[in-house]
Amino acid sequence: MIKIVSDKAPTVDIHSILTTDEIAAIHEFMNHYPQSRAASLDALKIVQKRNGWVNDAQVNAIANILDVPVTDIEGVATFFNRIYRSPVGRHVILICDSVACYLTGYEALSAELKRQLGINYGQTTTDGRFTLLPICCLGNCDKGPAVLIDEDTYGPVTPDEVAQLLELYP
Length: 170
Ligand code: FES
Fold this sequence. Notes:
- The chain has seven helices and four strands.
- It is α+β, with helices and mostly antiparallel strands.
- The protein folds into two domains: about 70 residues, Arc Repressor Mutant, subunit A, CATH 1.10.10; about 80 residues, Glutaredoxin, CATH 3.40.30.10.
- The radius of gyration is 18 Å and the shape is elongated.
- The protein binds FE2/S2 (inorganic) cluster.
- FE2/S2 (inorganic) cluster binds next to helix 5.
């Protein structure tokens, strides 16, 4: 067995990539944890707030601040499906495709969302308004099928309610 050792992040000028406020906020989270690496997810969330997603340069800058390999930050970003590594719409719709929601109407709801938005999973509407993605359990299994739009959770959502729901997010 070979131990895999990741390389340190190449040094970058973090001030040309992140704002002063972002850097300060990341440092504040670092101080909450015994190991800076533990602040990876918080750092990604801080940076994602600016444009709704996190680009490669920003990932590199976060790795510099936390003094961890870029692959560590990439790993956290990949694991948490609410960190986006490519541009998304103004609103991100996440529809739960786990078992309880599947049994309570996921397929019909998913089909109606795709039909009304005119997009498939992983796509963004041409007006840049919505991105649609599947997600595993949102923790609202007794209210399935459940949907998360930005920070708002809804459920149960019927296909008939989709148009009304979308109108809430101009
Ligand atoms: S299975 Fe959908 S919220 Fe848990």
